[in-house]
Amino acid sequence: MNTQNNWKEKWVNQPTLMLTTVIIWSVFIGLCIKAGTLTFVAIMSFFNAPVAQDLYEGLNLYNLMQENPWYYVGLISLMLGVACSKAYLFYLMIRIFMSIDLQHPFNAKVGNYLSQMGSTALQIGFLIIITSSSIKWLIKRGFDIPAMTGFVGGAMEFIFMGILIFAIAQVFKRGIEIQSENELTV
Fold first, then answer.
1. CA–CA separation, 74 vs 61, rounded Å?
2. Taking Cα atoms as reference points, which of 76, 157, 165 lies closest to residue 124?
3. C-beta neighbour count of 110 within 10 angstroms
4. Contact 113, 97 (CB under 8 A)
5. DSSP state, 104?
6. How far apart are CA 120 and CA 88, in angstroms?
7. Which pLDDT score, from 0 to 100, does residue 1 have?
8. How does pLDDT run across 172-186, given as a tens digit for each residue?
9. Helices of type H across the chain
10. CB-CB contact of 94 with 163 (8 Å)
11. What is the percentage of the chain residues whose pLDDT exceeds 90?
């Protein structure tokens, strides 16, 4: 009941913030569907190998699975790590938008979520770099790996975003300190 009243109050007082939250929710759901589908199909491919011919949106790793199942497991694991981490990043965004109050924007909960978002974005960037390097390594050894731009692109963007979010988290921490000092003096 309290959550429902809180939602209504936020929609009345902060409609732009709540509209943004709804958009982030839709992206989060899409990323969860992608990660869940990839997980389900990857598990299915261990029981029925031809499933690896169309893992997700035409991704075909059937040849890699037939030539070396361990490399297949490694590559799928990296791809799942990236997909799940992206979904977690948007989950943290939702938590921030649900916790933020424009009347008192600086609070410890939002600061912690920002720090977690920064580290998650950095992890995604490095995970994408590792996945890309693994693909290049497999291709050098003669494995037939298709183009996977939808799964391994944007590493530098995530690293830059992580650094930027860490900087914002530091500003937030200072804002929390100033807000606490102001509340004590009043």
1. 12
2. 157
3. 21
4. no
5. S
6. 8
7. 52
8. 888 888 888 887 776
9. 2-13, 15-47, 62-67, 69-99, 108-140, 149-152, 155-185
10. no
11. 53
Contact present, 81 and 38 (Cβ < 8 Å): no
C-beta of residue 49 within 8 angstroms of C-beta of residue 62: yes
Contact 118, 89 (CB under 8 A): no
Q: Which residues contact 54 (CB under 8 A, 6 or more apart)?
A: 60
Tokens 């650094």 label which residue? 163
Rounded CA-CA distance 119/98 in Å is 20
Looking at residue 81, its amino acid is: G
pTM of the model: 0.86
pLDDT at 115 over 90: yes
Q: Is residue 131 within 8 Å of residue 79, measured between CB atoms? A: yes
CA distance 4 to 2: 5
Are the C-beta atoms of residues 126 and 159 closer than 8 Å to each other?
Answer: yes
Structure tokens at 44: 């299915």
Count of CB atoms within 10 A of residue 29's CB? 12
Tokens of 40: 């389900």
Cα distance between residue 151 and residue 147, in whole Å:
9
